[in-house]
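Journal club prep — side note

Before the paper discussion, L.F. wants everyone to see what a predicted structure for a comparable chain looks like in token form. Sequence:
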Amino acid sequence: MNNPYLTNGVDMVKIDRFEHLDPAIRARFINRVYTPNEIQLCANRNESLAGRFAAKEAVSKALGCGIGPIRWQDIEIVATEEDQPMIIFHGAAKEAVEKRGLTSWSISITHTQDYAMAFVVAMSPFPPEACD
């Protein structure tokens, strides 16, 4: 791809936000934000939940529209066989990716004891349009 256009997004989340959620709110939150596959992958580990939450935010920023027009579960963060994070798009997120011509994605997720952070870069062969 000659002279690709790049877009990126980054987000950081305090892990203890997940530790201090009321159990009833936590269950509703997890079921609203994460896909069943993500829930299984995270195994209720706060650092994993926070990392995937930051990744979804970073992806929505790279898409240029944020969460709102795109639902949380439209962005799914899974793991490759090598345990590297990988993005799967569904619904409105998939439509936004196709409309914007974003053909290649790279994602990195990290965490410390206190924070989880994700950084995303996407490429397009032409200038991406803004989300509706």
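L.F.'s comment for the group: The chain has one domain: 5-124. Keep this in mind when we get to the figures.
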